[in-house]
Amino acid sequence: MSTILFFVAGIGTIAGAVGVVVLRDPFYSVLALVGHLISLAVLFLLLRAEFVAAAQVVVYAGAVMVLYVFVVAYVGGSAADSLGDEPLVGPRFSASNLRLGGAIAGGALLIELLIALLGTGLKAIGGYGAGYAPGPRTFGTPAYIGNLLLTRFLLAFEAASFLLLIAAVGAIVLAGRRGGLEGDEEERRLTPLDLIRPQGTGTTAEGVGSGGRHSA
Amino acid sequence: MSIAWYLAVSAIVFSLGVVGVITRRNPLVVLLCLELMLNGANLSLVAFARMWGNGDGQILALIVMTVAACEVCIGLGMIVAIYRRRLPVDVDELRELQG
Fold it and tell me: B78 is in which domain, residue-wise?
């Protein structure tokens, strides 16, 4: 049973990753990543990491991916297409050359990683992991993780929370609208018509108070 | 399944993320591929935690997820700022960090 589940989730994980890399529309890439994350959560469950799997689904596949979808919708991703057909500007690489080079580099890295991970001669890699007894406070449950986070890893926990605070402030500073610098200033710019006819000289729009150019 | 299978899956996911970071040109998709690389590393961390029956790897995976959330936050903020300034949303044409 767990073998079948592993293969289903593993194939889902790898297919989702391939989808993220290959699909042209960033919106579909985000959706592929959601599938990848959910399959990965199943793999985490198979590895007895219940709390990490739950956090993965809630935080990643939920919150972070919604943020991505919003930004893709805002930027309108398909306008600036990646894997485009026109050649790159700077070095004389065409897009197909870049793709080939990327595939070669990735394949070389994969072979190297597989040699490094599986060729270590560690006996435990071939095993099925340490002993596991189900229970309310055993390995990987929320109680276990919470106990570790608030005792041994308290410093890392606090540093992570501080990092989140700084990231939130930084995102607001980066993406925030700077008081009327861009949009509003263009509307209030002086036009030649203002010099000829000063404000309040009795156009019909001003008379009924329904807003001329200046009443906003 | 033995731990080696999980490690193989994590290596494949990490390599796919590297390929995506090299080949894609939309910064949004580059960020997504960075997520893939972090997830590959997370999977191997959790697999090693299972191997030794020790929870430290799971804690590290959680911290990595936190850092990834911060990175997404800042990265998406930068993409929105780039888009606001009418700059091209393309990593090959963005060559200056100057605002």
Answer: 8-84
Per-residue model confidence as pLDDT tens digits over A127-143 = 777 777 777 778 888 88
Is residue B98 assigned to a domain? no
B1 is a domain residue: no
Dist CA A128 CA A130 (whole Å):
7
In a domain, B95, yes or no: no
Domains in chain B, number = 1
This prediction has a pTM of: 0.79
pLDDT of residue A185: 47
User: Taking CB atoms and an 8 Å limit, are A145 and B11 in contact across chains?
Assistant: no
Apex A111 CA angle, B91 and B29, nearest 5:
20
Buried-exposed string B5-42: b where 16+ CB fall within 10 A, e elsewhere:
bbbbbbbbbbbbbbbbbbbbbbbbbbbbbbbbbbbbbb
Pick from A33, A55, A79: CB nearest B65: A55
Nearest by CB to A77, from B19, B26, B39: name it.
B26
Judge whether A88 and A99 are in contact, CB under 8 Å: no
